[in-house]
Amino acid sequence: MSLAADGLGFFARRGGHLPGGGRSPSCCDTTWLETVLRAEPDVVTVCLGLNDAAFLPSQLELVSQAVDHDLSFLAARLRGVPVIVAPYFPALGVGPRFGVVRHLVHERATELGLVSTDIMSTAIDGDEGKLSVDGIHPDDAGHAAIARTMIGYYEEYVPAVCRRRSAPA
User: Fold this and answer.
1) Would residue 99 count as lying in a domain?
2) pLDDT tens digits, residue range 18-35?
3) Which structural domain range is residue 46 located in?
4) Alpha carbon distance 109, 113 (integer Å)
5) For 113, left (φ over 0), alpha (ψ -120 to 50), or beta?
6) Worst-scoring range by mean pLDDT, 3-7, 47-51, 96-100?
7) What is the band of 132 on the pLDDT scale with cuts at 50, 70, 90?
8) Which positions ≥6 away from 142 have C-beta within 8 Å?
9) What's 99-164 look like in SS3?
10) The total number of structural domains that make up the chain
């Protein structure tokens, strides 16, 4: 199961509906989080942050509150379920706003005892052959690279879940 929406972040597109069909930012929305709980997951991967960089520096405090809100919610409500925090950025060390969000996310995840990794970003690592024309989002090859990398990560980090899923019925 994949929960995704174009432009979604910890803060970005998480509030009420705007004229024209968009969504406003919010640092306390639980819609997506409640959906995760209802799915009764074996493992959760949080890959948010990229879209929040656009709100910096003016909304830094709200982005920080949103990161704290979401990760604290997951840590408290999914005890015993591995939560892997793996924000995606097209490359590490590119763009100061990306770096700020990356630091916020990893710092808070670590404080909460969640697993935090740059594995999705390093799967792309700025390779233009894996990026869409916007130079930020992965293209099909990039998504495939991320998927392969994450499968390997899951096999190492949550092997019991991987074995359970691949066992014959």
Assistant:
1) yes
2) 888 778 888 888 988 999
3) 31-127
4) 6
5) left
6) 3-7
7) very high
8) 123, 124, 127, 130, 131, 132
9) HHHHHHHHHHHHHCCCEECCHHHHHHCCCHHHECCCCCCECHHHHHHHHHHHHHHHHHHCHHHHHH
10) 1
